[in-house]
Amino acid sequence: MDVIYWLIPSMIFVGVVLVILLMMGVKRGQFDDLEGEGQRILFDEDQEIHTPKKNPKNGVDT
Q1: Per-residue pLDDT tens for 3-45?
Q2: How far apart are CA 62 and CA 58, in angstroms?
Q3: What CA–CA distance (Å, rounded) separates 5 from 14?
Q4: Using CA atoms, how far apart are residues 10 and 14, in angstroms rounded to an integer?
Q5: N or C: which end of the chain has fewer CB within 10 A?
Q6: Which residues contact 29 (CB under 8 A, 6 or more apart)?
């Protein structure tokens, strides 16, 4: 029975700490883009995107 007297307040304290950490994460924007990270693994980072380069002589895209 003595265990309950310190177990209940300690679990309330842990719960309050977890709620504070959750609020800090939401405030900092950690949960803004939930789908972006999951979709990012589908794309290769090694792939180079071809961007047209301008010819320095005439300014035309090559």
Answers
A1: 999 999 999 999 999 999 999 999 998 888 878 877 877 877 6
A2: 10
A3: 15
A4: 6
A5: N
A6: none
